[in-house]
């Protein structure tokens, strides 16, 4: 260490002496013409730079200097003056144990994605991004690092979520919703998860000392209840960019955990008789209806809530292109190539927020907890809404499809189908559940629009 | 300030429901108009007729294969003198 300091001091004194010699030169030149100062002043700088750049040193010195650039040194001996990706000083814990803990966290995420199959398409890029973000010295999550560049390319300005929405739109079939439009109400009920959690998060910040979230931050956290990754990222980057990492990770983790979180809630709120309800087969939906629907939704957004237009607009664009049938190449690109590329970037950029100094903080635990609450509340509200609708209507709805109102497409609908088959193996609920499922996407986009309209 | 969040909840859920209700009625209206004035009926027939043909052919192939199999089996049984 002393040797390193010594060499730094040498370099510093050299540069000082070169600066001291400059005024002599400039005083001579200023007498003649002022513009010629610049080339004269630059020349000595260049030569000293060449000298400074590499100092001959003994092999021992070389080894010691090299040791200080290894990850072992960085992970074992925390240094002062190490900066985070945001340019703030980093604590000793986050430089050492924090990074090691985050390595383990990313390994657990790898395991969940590969062995357990939890949303591997998203979890793997996120986990790998997290691993890279915690590499010491290389500073990959910093503004000039690979992850930092990707982050600024499309997350901080909200572009990537919209491109994902375009692809999701191109993959969505509104047929089941068009065949039975009133099921859209279930997709609306599930948005209670968002607004209920907003109240909960803000109440806990206001009346207790556990958290201290502002109204904007509470709003950004509660959007997790919409179970819609792109929407969560879009809102978080607008309302609370400082919480984006934790919100995105919580949101995508809970989307992956839909098959684990939802079933107990669904079963607790329904009776076996209700779970066996069979629903009427859906009617055939014409091509023209499917073609006009995205335009209809977009027009309604334009008139009622233009703030949701980026999300709904991208979604409608993807869906409209698919349904026209004349631009199959474009719709095919949106469904596959584009969404895949953006998913890689989005995953890596979100992963960059898994850097120890940002993730291993109390707020993250609070966000994970509140996100789970939001998600569960949304699921419960959807199921209860279906039961409420059954009280007023003769055409009974199987309450299990209510849980699909949280938007996680098509995972939530598959969970409804699976739970239904447990009580009656011949009861096919998947297509019925797709209705509230896609309505949930629209519902959470509208909820997001309300938040943006109120807080922007 | 706490009541602010409650107000937002009512406004938010209200907007979501208002939007979805309008969407439901507009969708129903749209479907009604389309089904009355632009029915898809003739197209559906041509669409379903096309994929049906190969399916039937496949069925016929399967039938022929089954018949051949049965004949072969019968022939074997005859050769073995069981019949």
In short:
Chain A has 456 residues and is an all-alpha fold.
What does this protein structure show overall?
The complex is a heterodimer of chains A (456) and B (83). Chain A is an all-alpha fold. Chain A has a domain at 156-455. Helix content of chain A is 72%, strand content 0%. Chain A has helices spanning 2-32, 37-53, 59-68, 71-76, 92-95, 97-114, 120-133, 146-154, 159-171, 175-179, 184-189, 192-207, 215-222, 229-239, 244-256, 258-268, 272-275, 287-304, 309-324, 328-351, 356-359, 362-392, 411-423, 430-455. Chain A starts with a helix and ends with a helix. The model of chain A is unreliable at 12-39 (pLDDT under 50). By secondary structure, chain B is mainly α. Chain B has helices at 2-37, 41-79. Chain B is elongated and about 95 Å long. The mean pLDDT of chain B is 78. At the A-B interface, helix 11, helix 12, helix 13, helix 18 and helix 24 of A face helix 1 of B.
Q: Please identify the oligomeric state.
A: heterodimer
Helical segment count of chain A:
24
Largest sheet composition of chain A: none
Which structural class matches the secondary elements of chain A?
A: mainly alpha
Amino-to-carboxy terminus distance of chain A: 50 Å
Number of strands of chain A: 0
Order of helices and strands of chain B: HH
Provide keyphrases for this structure.
heterodimer, A: 456 residues, mainly alpha, 0% strand, elongated, B: 83 residues, 2 domains
SSE topology sketch:
The complex is a heterodimer of chains A (456) and B (83).
Chain A: H1 2-32, H2 37-53, H3 59-68, H4 71-76, H5 92-95, H6 97-114, H7 120-133, H8 146-154, H9 159-171, H10 175-179, H11 184-189, H12 192-207, H13 215-222, H14 229-239, H15 244-256, H16 258-268, H17 272-275, H18 287-304, H19 309-324, H20 328-351, H21 356-359, H22 362-392, H23 411-423, H24 430-455
Chain B: H1 2-37, H2 41-79
